[in-house]
Amino acid sequence: MNFESLAHTIDDDFDLTSDLDHGGIVIPTQTCEHVQYVELLDTIVRITPTQCVDCESTTENWLCLSCGEIHCSRYVNNHGEGHWLFTLLTDEKYNVGHCLTIGLEDLSVWCYPCKSYVKNVRLNPLIKCIESIKFGSSNDSLDQSCDCETLDNLIPTVDNHNPSTIIAIQEASLLKELTKTDLLSFCYTMKFRSASIDELVRLHSSDYVNMIVSAEKVHSKISSKRFHISWFDTALSTARLSAGMTIDLIQNVVNTDHINGFILSTSPGHRALKDHGNGTSIYNNIALGVNSVLMDKSTNNPRKSSLALIDSNNHVHMEGATPIEDAICHMINVLTPSSVFELKQPAAKIPVVTDNNNNKIQIERAFIVDLTCEHGSGIQSVYYESNQVFYLSIHKEEHQHRSSYHECGKNQGIGYTMNIPLACFDRAYDKDYETIMKELILPIVKEFQPELIVVCVDFELPHITASCYAWIIEQFRRIDQSKLVVALDGDLSNVSSKSAYVQKVLSVLIGKSSEISDDEWKNSGVNKDVLHKIDLIKQKHQHYWSCFQ
């Protein structure tokens, strides 16, 4: 970033701290979108001396959370903000500089581009470390140093030079439980980021994205009647993080040899439609991720939603857009930080597979299996007329929105949707799901030959054990020429209690354990409703797939 562009950015977006600000009661924001980009200190042992490095002032000083330098506040000589601007000039990677600083008086954290105090789970370990140094610890065994093992910078417990799985963990409690095992030593761990506006509008309508992003920034109310979503203070920013990490993980799984993926997000998305959300589903994470690697083979829809910089003033335009849509896209793009992508890994850099023209590989066929408690109406809606993505859902029979076994696609997508509605859904057991896998899912996967398989889970099925989930995942893992991604989706309100399920699935995903035995397969003990629905679905889909003829 050169000085001219920096000055332009500051004038238009940042609006440096006003001299009229004299403090008072403040409410820290929990939706700071810069936190995930900042490189935080790894270790703090002591904080001395406590004066500003520029003017030696000892009045209300602040500690930079990126480099540990101490600078005076905006009420003294404002050297803290000067330090941020200087680092902003040289930050070509994230374009945020050392924007986070902590007050040594009250240990409050300030973000310069947000012009606000902030709270974020990523900052908690560092704040606790500084607090113990400043005030002393009540626990004599507490070390005065801080190893910031944050959600996006995980150090494996042992060296492993051949990881088999990329994992993205947004849920802090699950991360804590996994660190007690050696499972993460078999994984690349991903640094996640918020999805950009450009990425979101490639699936969702610009009107919807503009409304959600604007509400995220100013914490305004959203018309629930129009967009059908329920949300809390941090839901909107969390949803963008979940979307961004899903996109990045799927892209890397597809573009890397012999690697699968596991997404542990905290914001569901499989019910979100193109032009509005649905309950707690705000952005359709899975569809965004699949679309980012799916080769566009459509011929009847020349209009695209990709953004491109086409003039010297960095104005953004969308091909085929109306002037109003174009203005909206430009406005929200200006308000969005540049895209960031990086993997944190225990060994060598992950090799990216490219074609002969050095382009990232894209796929032609993807298979999405929905094993959550809720029908993924949003995913089905996105791909209902597509013959590139096969969507399969097992759900309660009373679900609406084209969830009957009669609903199997439209136009080019006829036969590429399979709904398995069960009257006995709340009474289905491992044997029932294993039978569905053997009789319906595996035959169609073998014939469809997808290059990517995405399995959506929420681990909330009433009588399905962790071993059954692991058995299903292992069946998919053994399919040749297909990459596999397991994604938490659906109802995630109680996912923190499912650590045992996560560990079981991850164990088979990395190949450390197996749930597949050599026992002869039998359909004994299977619910009659399951067997009846299997027969009906085979009759319906035999018109489209030879495996059922």
TrEMBL record:
EC assignment: 3.5.1.98
Domain UBP-type: 30-137
Keywords: Chromatin regulator, Hydrolase, Metal-binding, Nucleus, Repressor, Transcription, Transcription regulation, Zinc, Zinc-finger
One biological process term in Gene Ontology: epigenetic regulation of gene expression
Keyword Cell cycle: no
Superkingdom, natural source: Eukaryota
InterPro entries reported for this sequence: His_deacetylse_dom (IPR023801), His_deacetylse_dom_sf (IPR037138), Ureohydrolase_dom_sf (IPR023696), Znf_RING/FYVE/PHD (IPR013083), Znf_UBP (IPR001607)
GO CC, alphabetical: histone deacetylase complex
Cross-referenced Gene3D superfamilies: Histone deacetylase domain (3.40.800.20), Zinc/RING finger domain, C3HC4 (zinc finger) (3.30.40.10)
Location relative to the cell: Nucleus
Gene Ontology molecular function: histone deacetylase activity, hydrolytic mechanism; zinc ion binding
SUPFAM superfamilies documented for this protein: Arginase/deacetylase, RING/U-box
Pfam families on file: Hist_deacetyl (PF00850), zf-UBP (PF02148)
Protein family (similarity comment): Belongs to the histone deacetylase family. HD type 2 subfamily.
Protein name: histone deacetylase
The species this protein was found in: Adineta ricciae
